[in-house]
Amino acid sequence: MRASHLHCFAASALSLALLATPAAAEPKYDPGASASEIKIGQTVPFSGPASAYSSIGKTQAAYFKMINEQSGINGRKINLIQYDDAYSPPKAVEQVRKLVESDEVLLTFQIVGTPSNAAVQKYLNQKQVPQLFAATGATRFTDPKNFPWTMGYNPNYQSEGRIYGKYILKNYPNAKIGILWQNDDLGRDYVAGIRAGLGDKAATMVVADTSYELADPTVDSQIVKLKSSGADLLFSASTPKFAAQAIKKVADLGWKPVHIVDINATSVGAVLQPAGLDNSKGLISVNYGKDPADPQWKDDAGMKRYLAFMEKYYPEGDKNSNFNTYGYGNAQLMVEVLKRCGDDLTRANVMKQATSLSNIKIDIGLPGMSITTSPTDYRVNKQLQMMKFNGERWELFGPIIEDDVAG
């Protein structure tokens, strides 16, 4: 009798297990995901003072088109919905609300710019919608304790600033430093970083700093002020339009400072050419990606894939633009995260996968660099290498530097 009962129990348990197995394997979806598509939303400054960044969004759209033609992600097509925010925070709020509440996207991806991301950060975290790989390096976007649904993509601005400060101490210990900075989280983080890197010497080495507003037509008066301070080293914490103006005005004044620009202002096409390549010679900055114009990458497999992509999917784009390599790299990373989600396309799982990456290499990353994240360290890119502009292209120098201070 006991054996019979046990047999019946085992048979029932097996039947329940068989019934449960398909249910456990059922796909999980949050708004924006289905058996056929994954909706992703972003705002891009296709117009306005930061429209130079528009090619980032165009590159990303082209990359997802390529992925869709290659059968998509686990059989699902990416539906990228893009809106122009004109680099205006109020416009970004309006458009992101539309993406979440009307378009019902699964996540936002690569919203461009510190002001726009800052304007929507609390809203997206309240809604528990991933704000993934935000196109900014401001410290507030790598703060898992206060903003668990937000991950920045760019190197942390304070980390980058600390690297410049240490570089100055080593190579220009007697410099008189003038700082131009954008009056927002971007500029403030850079200033805090470079002062931290200079340490106790910041108080004596920084002889002047002046900010500008996004609405300002030019930064000419700020550059004149910094020159008159007696500074012989200029650090520009700015975005493309204003960085180009600063480079040109420095040249017009006949001023010859050591000139360091932040990574946001290193595009040859969008910044240095408008400012004048001769005027830009000698600029110093950092990078974490390969420059298509650098002949050392001509036989690199990752660069070949990038160039083939540009030729087929974005032929009108400038293949040598670091905005386009940037857009290609983070779109590639986004696809990797979505692949890892499998059939669990919930917002919580998207964040779980994005915050558990280990030694991920992307096509345009410099050799020796990889991407590792964790639930307590949201920084995607924390390795950098110094570079100098030779009048035609950027040349890397020095070792890979990894910042070990979590943002």
Topology:
Elements: H1 2-24, E1 28-29, E2 37-44, H2 54-69, E3 77-84, H3 89-102, E4 107-109, H4 114-127, E5 131-134, E6 150-152, H5 157-171, E7 177-182, H6 185-198, H7 202-205, E8 206-212, H8 220-228, E9 233-237, H9 240-252, E10 258-261, H10 268-275, H11 277-280, E11 284-287, H12 301-313, H13 322-341, E12 344-345, H14 347-354, E13 383-389, E14 394-402
Could you walk me through the main structural features you see in this protein, from its secondary elements to its overall organization?
It is a single chain. It contains 14 helices and 14 strands. It is α/β, with parallel strands linked by helices and 407 residues long. The strands form four sheets. A five-stranded parallel sheet has the order 3-2-4-5-6, sandwiched between helices. It has a four-stranded parallel sheet with strand order 8-7-9-10, sandwiched between helices. Strands 11-13-14 form a three-stranded antiparallel sheet, with helices on one face. It folds into two domains: 37-155 and 296-376, Rossmann fold, CATH 3.40.50; 158-287 and 388-402, Rossmann fold (3-Layer(aba) Sandwich). Helix 13 (322-341) crosses helix 14. Helix content is 43%, strand content 18%.
